[in-house]
Amino acid sequence: MIKGFVFDMDGLLFDSERIVQRSWYAAGAELGYPDIGAQIYHTIGFNRARRAVYFKEIYGEDFPYEMFQEKAACSFMEIVDKEGMPMKPGVPELLNFARAQGMAVGLATSSSEDYARDSLRRAGIESYFDGLVSGNMVKKSKPNPEIYQKACAAISISPAEAIAFEDAPAGISSACAAGLRAVMIPDMVQPDEETLAKVWMIKGSLTEALEELKKIL
User: Fold this and answer.
1) DSSP per residue over 68-106, as a string?
2) How do the domains of the chain map onto residue ranges?
3) How far apart are the C-alpha atoms of 59 and 24, rounded to whole Å?
4) Where are the alpha helices (DSSP H) in 60-205?
5) What is the pTM of this model?
6) What is the rounded radius of gyration, in angstroms, for the C-alpha atoms of the chain?
7) Tens of pLDDT along the chain (217 residues)?
8) How far apart are CA 161 and CA 167, in angstroms?
9) What whole-number distance in Å separates Cα of residue 15 and Cα of residue 82?
């Protein structure tokens, strides 16, 4: 029996990954790394600590990660304040469905807790979530299962009783390794054969996923 849904956030609830990429290009241009925005395709699902390791592996130990992070964060917020951060199609409908079904709802995001809560608040959907686990609350980032294990514990259900919603292969691997059924809604990264073998369902949008879930839950 399914008792809960656990959602990723960036690229799944919000069309934010493209804004992140723009902010990386802006920060990279200032610091002399003009191609750095392309690295997003390799780091989706990483928390801040894992991303720092990755950038130093690519650009060397002298890469000024903290300065880059600060400039990128400022650029990101400037874009969001000016243009907003679009919610993905189907988000309100799926959250309302979960509430109507009495499902517990959790968040498993690699982003920081402050950013995650602020994003949910700005979108007016924070009240739908019964528990939240962020990237700074785990030791190992996706694809490690830790974040989904903790997210299920936060909403008091077992992984076997939960469905995970993800947009990227690292998140799918994390959810499946933790024991959740995984629904994939691809965003910036398309699934490879290994990922396709793991997913329980793959759809083009949360709206399409909801229509399918209504038939089986």
Assistant:
1) HHHHHHHHHHHHHHHH--PBPTTHHHHHHHHHHTT-EEE
2) 4-15+86-216, 17-83
3) 14
4) 65-83, 91-100, 113-123, 146-154, 169-178, 193-198
5) 0.95
6) 17
7) 999 999 999 999 999 999 999 999 999 999 999 999 999 999 998 999 999 999 999 999 999 999 999 999 999 999 999 999 999 999 999 999 999 999 999 999 999 999 999 999 999 999 999 999 999 999 999 999 999 999 999 999 999 999 999 999 999 999 999 999 999 999 999 999 999 999 999 999 999 999 999 999 9
8) 20
9) 15
What tokens does 79 get?
């874009």
Number of H helices, E strands in the chain: 10, 6
Q: Tokens 């969001």 correspond to what residue?
A: 80
Does the 4-15+86-216 domain belong in CATH 3.40.50.300? no
- Rounded Cα–Cα distance for residues 171 and 144 (Å): 9
Q: How far apart are CA 129 and CA 142, in angstroms?
A: 20
Q: Show the tokens assigned to 216.
A: 């089986």
